Amino acid sequence: MTVVAIITLMAAVAIPAFLHYLDKAKTTEAKVNLKTLADGALNYYHQERGIPGSGGLEISTHVFPEQGEVPTIGIGDKVGFKNNPIDYAEDFNKTPWVELNFHISSPFLFSYTYTPLDSPCRKFDAVAKASLANIEDSSFVLMGRSSDDGVMPFTIQEQ
Question: For the chain, first and last CA: distance in Å?
Answer without folding.
Answer: 45
